[in-house]
Write a structure and sequence with these properties.
The complex is a heterodimer of chains A (256) and B (315).
Chain A: H1 2-17, H2 19-51, H3 54-59, H4 62-86, H5 88-96, H6 98-104, H7 109-130, H8 133-141, H9 146-173, H10 177-193, H11 203-212, H12 214-223, H13 228-255
Helix pairs in contact in A: 1-7, 2-4, 4-9, 4-10, 5-9, 7-9, 7-13, 9-10, 9-12, 9-13, 12-13
Chain B: E1 2-11, E2 14-24, E3 29-33, H1 40-47, E4 55-60, E5 63-64, H2 69-74, E6 76-79, H3 91-101, H4 109-119, H5 135-147, E7 153-157, H6 165-179, E8 183-188, H7 191-197, E9 200-205, E10 208-213, H8 215-222, E11 226-233, H9 241-246, E12 251-257, E13 263-270, H10 277-286, E14 291-296, H11 301-314
Parallel strand pairs in B: 3-8, 3-9, 6-7, 7-8
Antiparallel strand pairs in B: 1-2, 1-4, 4-5, 9-10, 11-13, 11-14, 12-13
Helix pairs in contact in B: 3-4, 8-11
The chains are: A mainly alpha (256), B alpha/beta (315).
The structure holds adenosine-5'-triphosphate and magnesium ion.
Amino acid sequence: MKKFTAIYGRELKYYFQSVTAYVTMGIFLILSGYFFYSIFRVYNFLSFQAARNAQYAEQLNLIDGVMRPLLSNISIVLLLVLPLLTMRLLAEEKKLGTFELLLTYPVSDAAAIMGKFLAALTTFTIMLLGTLLYPLLLAIFSDPEPGPVFTGYLGLFLMGSSFIAMGTFFSSLTNNQLVAGVTTFGLALFFLIIGWAAPFVGETFSKILSQFSLLKHFDSFSKGVIDTQDITYYVFLTLFFLFLTLKSIESTRWRS
Amino acid sequence: MIRVENLSKFYGITVGVRNLNFSVERGEVLGFLGPNGAGKTTTMKILTCYLPPTAGTARICGYDILENPMEVRKRIGYLPEKNPLYMDMRVTEYLEFVSHLKGVPTRRIDEEIGRTIGRCGLEEVPHRTIGKLSKGYQQRIGIAQALIGDPELLILDEPTLGLDPKQIIEIRQLIKNLGTERTVILSSHILPEVSQVCTRIIIINQGELVAVDTPENLRKRLKKASVIHVKLRESTEAHRAGDIVSAVEGIMMVKEAPSEEGTMHIIIEAAPDRDVRNKVAFAIVESGLPLLEIYSEELSLEDIFLQLVMEEEAH
Ligand SMILES: Nc1ncnc2c1ncn2[C@@H]1O[C@H](COP(=O)(O)OP(=O)(O)OP(=O)(O)O)[C@@H](O)[C@H]1O
Ligand SMILES: [Mg+2]
């Protein structure tokens, strides 16, 4: 446990000591702030219209009008930003050779991987908490339902953790950070849009595809619904890629 | 302490090492000697449980590297060839990190770091960032991390690589001191270094073991003849020197070598197991010739190495 904590602590410190973490976070917060601003302006405009049309006004609420579009936009930004956070996790150490030394210490591969994964997850969580500013602003000036906001954030957290697990895996395959980042981005994007093909591939296959879709599972979270199936999906994806990372490290020993 | 049995490692079709057998006793300082690509680093990576061997195995402190890698790792300190360090960390911060990873009990960590810093001569730089230190200091930090946790066995891959002569001497001294209290394996292609520091030498070439012995025995073993050099002051009588020494019992050959102005240089070969210096000196002094110096020639390790490798190839 102390070994895990040492690795976790070092990684976390690295994130917050280096400029990259702050730049990544900064960009993330600026982009999501921009999304919040524009979505809110549109909502504002619609509200004025609704003032003249009572029926329309009934359909309008802060969750569907602001929070849902905001969270789904944030999920896209995560797709761009999380690979930047994960690409160095193992690739950098493999390149520098410190990873080889780490593997000769009496530390289990699992402790090393979990330390790194959880450090990235913690950094991501801090980033995500930063965006809570926007629902707080909404709460000051109005009263959005807290339930869907909470589940929406839970959904983002779970989705992010599966991205991070993917990123950890790709970072373990190469000693080139750029390759690790780009492949993570590619696969994560693929999982995000895999559902698009669903309408064209026949019934059974279509079901399978949409089961794999990151977006489909995110959808119910943003509506305020917690479905164990969706949670299972993200947790499974995360554990699956962490398991692959473990295997990949074992095999580097045999291959190199 | 270490028992290596039929150890082989192939990288695809490239031979890393082939069929190595040797053992190391507690308290030995073992030198691994060989040209580039000989398989020194490969052997060390296997012993540190980083690379699994293709065939064969090794036991370290009674634990098999394949069956019990965690027990083995607890007992070794390793300095890799490239000396990889976390350049963004400060020296004590790094050593503390390593202490945690090696499972040093928390209450003993400060003491452990203090001891290691003193040992490795890092007292001047404990709070500096590693990346900003000179190569010599970084090398010491590499050795320091290996020493953390007080391992029974130190494995150092080319510990003096890329250092200036003064640093090399200091690091060698450090290794020598370390060798008095624990087992050390170090690799090098600098032969004088190995003969100075090590109690035993293993020579490998192209992945195969060529010789294992103490530096003295290696020298003796390869000595085809004992060679003595005699220098005299040039005089009208000096040419008689050749005849005089030839008459000494046990001398096999005498020849004259080119020499500086005003002196005469004679090379004498005798049977390998006979020390004839005494008799030669007497003979010359008795004949009244002006003797300047007399010394026996030592085979350098370079000679030994070339000779062994050539013998090997001739077979
Ligand atoms: N990762 C690898 N993949 C393929 N071949 C390798 C690898 N590492 C080493 N080799 C090969 O194995 C052989 C032994 O290499 P090794 O690094 O053990 O030599 P060395 O004695 O340490 O050499 P040097 O003095 O240059 O450090 C060489 O032929 C080398 O090319
Ligand atoms: Mg080497």
